[in-house]
Amino acid sequence: MLNTIFAKKIEMKQWFNPAGKRLGVTVLSVLPMKVSTIRTQPLDGYNAIQLNVAGKRKREVRLPEADLSAFKVGDETSWSEVIKLGDKVNVTGISKGKGFAGVVKRYGFSGGPRTHGQSDRERAPGSIGSTTTPGRVLRGKHMAGNMGNSTVTTPKLKVVAVNIDQQTIYVSGAVPGAKLGLIKVTKI
Q1: Which CATH architecture best describes the domain 4-97+151-187?
Q2: Residue 183's closest CA among 77, 53, 46, 38?
Q3: Which strands make up the sheet holding 57-62, listed edge to edge?
Q4: Cα distance between residue 153 and residue 175, in whole Å
Q5: C-alpha to C-alpha distance for 9 and 152, rounded to whole angstroms
Q6: Residue 49's closest CA among 24, 19, 69, 78?
Q7: Pairing between β-strand 182-187 and β-strand 48-53 as defined by DSSP bridges
Q8: Which ranges in the chain are annotated with CATH 2.40.30.10?
Q9: In whole angstroms, what is the distance from residue 86 CA to residue 17 CA?
Q10: CB contact burial 113-137 (16+ within 10 A = b; e otherwise)
Q11: Is the pTM above the cut of 0.85?
Q12: What pLDDT was estimated at residue 117?
């Protein structure tokens, strides 16, 4: 059975649950999905279906072989059978790109002293190398570089409301990405 849907991030807002507690939720508009290709182990080396999302984007969802028989090319998938009220989901999106950033902004380094003649070291990383052993800068060292614009998964968010008429779901908490960005919602 399909456990993944694709949606568009609409907005983040506050929402009151039936008990009157205020929650921060993200509104996701579910996109129409149609099966375009079925991948099988003998031909492709893995089992998956390829979905045509909103008529233009193709996305693959891996499935066990037993679940592939339920799909045919051209079938429209029903998202309301996948996501229900109260489900826990993993949400994946591409985070907002923030361009080239230094270590203070990118990793929260404190920077150097603001006094004692250190006018040029205020936002510098400090020492980056070690001594004679190993005599090089180690891989993975926190340094300045491009920040954001990477795939991020936010795990275990709860579906707090489902509106089938408007094709929207409300997910508790923040979801990665910019408004109108493509979001992958996977039921746990």
Answers
A1: Beta Barrel (2.40)
A2: 53
A3: 33-39, 48-53, 57-62
A4: 8
A5: 14
A6: 69
A7: unpaired
A8: 4-97+151-187
A9: 12
A10: eeeeeeeeeeebbeeeeeeeeeeee
A11: no
A12: 85
What pLDDT sits at residue 71? Answer: 87
Contacts 24+ apart (CB under 8 A), 176-181: 176/91, 176/92, 176/93, 176/94, 176/95, 176/152, 177/9, 177/93, 177/94, 177/95, 177/96, 177/152, 178/9, 178/96, 179/9, 179/10, 179/11, 180/8, 180/9, 180/10, 181/8, 181/9, 181/93, 181/94
Predicted confidence at residue 63, as pLDDT, reads 87
Q: Are 32 and 15 in contact (CB under 8 A)?
A: no
> Encoding tokens for residue 128?
């980056």
Residues shown for the chain: 188
Say what the pLDDT of residue 4 is. 93
Residues 6+ apart with CB under 8 A from 36: 50, 51, 52, 58, 73
Q: Which residues of the chain have pLDDT under 70?
A: none
Q: Token digits for 118?
A: 């250190």
